[in-house]
Specification:
globular, TrpB-like_PALP_sf, four-stranded parallel beta sheet, TrpB-like_PALP, 15 helices, amino-acid biosynthesis, signal, binds pyridoxal-5'-phosphate, Cysteine synthase 2, about 400 residues, Rossmann fold, single chain, about 15% strand
Length: about 400
């Protein structure tokens, strides 16, 4: 009895000592990791100071399957959740410099958008002393409307219409700004941000996003072989494309285009066209796809600035984008929006076309949380597909 009790006490003491030793080892490992902290950004002032300098990460599961290093520029880590923060800040600063708007005078920034740009303007207007007035189609998803309203933006809903209709949401935004500026009794000033036609859009990507990518590859002798982006306004692909091409003309710039958009046809065959036009099957006034933020059936100023730098375009179906969104979510923990998924499909297709060893950079534009009710609700229905199954069926 006495012996058994002594043995169990000894066993208890021994397990306690082993546990202490393990805890001590874990603690030491943690302190070593803390010492290895990568350089942090310095202290800064205001949310606007945290725009840009976004991270670049490698998508591990895609390397395993393609033999190519595929990196994502995490534009979704900007403070208001997308690359549009860069554009909104650039447009505001340019308008201030030109004396078109003054902070804390009740001045208003109008934009016609159902997407990320409205959110960036809403956030930055709060931070910089302006009012954001966002015009959008009345079929915009309820979560986006609620988000804009929660951010304090003035939201004006209009009937979905084509760009030639004076009541289309972009035209409504233009009219709103003109009404304030033309009213002699209104002391406020207003601007129409006009992201599609605004020259500061592609320029901010040319002077920041592109050079950031080059800097992130400065320790990599080989550099970037391919850059892939969708086009909404065209600002990202124009600015980054030009910066990368000027650095190395061999870098391929590839447009990833969703179904229903005519831009891919414009690049590959010189004509802005999508097959739904021919078949008369268009269901919406805009691009007929579940993917939001990219794809268009008209030529904009910012896209025209991209055309000289784009080497080829890859068309991606909704089905492929849905499956890819699921694939990177379940394999890599990357819960991204629809345009990022399109870019990943185009990246894999490009990797397979040009073979292993390529270094490919794509843009991760926004988080999956902005695409829950339409895109991810549909993506959930797909199990974990093989990459080969996703790629099959590409035009
Ligand atoms: C989610 C998302 N991805 C990509 C883009 C494309 O960016 P750009 O307008 O620079 O072509 C946009 C543009 O609105 C977007 O909202």
């Amino acid at each position: 009895m006495g012996l058994r009790s002594t043995l169990s006490t000894t066993a208890y003491v021994l397990s306690f000592l082993i546990l202490c030793n393990e805890v001590n080892k874990a603690y030491k490992k943690l302190s070593q990791q803390e010492k290895k902290l990568t350089p942090l950004p310095p202290k800064s002032r205001g949310i606007e100071s945290r725009i840009g300098n976004t991270p670049l990460i490698e998508i591990k599961s895609l390397l395993r399957k393609t033999g190519c290093k595929i990196y994502a520029k995490l534009e979704l880590s900007n403070p208001a959740g997308s690359s549009k923060d860069r554009v909104a800040l650039a447009i505001i600063r340019a308008a201030e410099t030109q004396g078109l708007i003054r902070p804390y005078h009740g001045d208003v920034i109008f934009e016609g958008t159902s997407g990320s740009t409205g959110i960036s303007f809403a956030v930055l207007c709060n931070a910089l002393g302006y009012t954001a007035h966002i015009c959008l189609p009345d079929d915009t998803s309820p979560e986006k409307l609620l988000l804009l309203e929660s951010l304090g933006a003035e939201v004006e809903k209009v009937k979905p219409a084509s760009i030639i209709d004076p009541n289309q949401y972009v035209n409504a935004a233009k009219r709103g700004a003109e009404a304030i500026n033309n009213d002699p009794n209104d002391p406020r000033r207003a601007i129409f941000a006009n992201q599609f036609e605004n020259d500061f859009n592609w320029r901010i990507h040319y002077t920041t996003t592109g050079p950031e990518i080059l800097k992130q590859f400065s320790d990599d002798e080989k550099g970037v072989d391919v850059f892939i982006s969708g086009s909404g306004t065209g600002g990202t692909i124009a600015g980054v494309g030009r910066a990368l091409k000027e650095y190395n003309e061999d870098t391929k710039i590839i447009l990833a285009d969703p179904q229903g958009s005519g831009l891919a046809n414009r690049i590959n065959y010189g004509v802005l066209y999508d097959s739904v036009e021919k078949e008369g099957t268009r269901r919406r006034h805009q691009v007929d796809t579940l993917v939001e933020g990219i794809g268009l059936n008209r030529l904009t100023w910012n896209f025209s600035k991209a055309i000289p730098y784009i080497d080829e375009a890859v068309k991606v179906t909704d089905e492929q984008a849905l499956k890819m969104a699921r694939y990177i979510c379940l394999n890599d923990g990357l819960f991204w929006g629809s345009s990022s998924a399109i870019n990943c499909v185009a990246a894999v297709q490009t990797a397979l076309k040009y073979g292993p060893g390529q270094t490919i950079v794509l843009v991760a534009c926004d988080s999956g949380e902005r695409h829950m009710s339409k895109f991810h609700a549909a993506a959930i229905k797909h199990g974990l597909c093989e990459l080969e199954d996703i790629i099959q069926g590409t035009d």
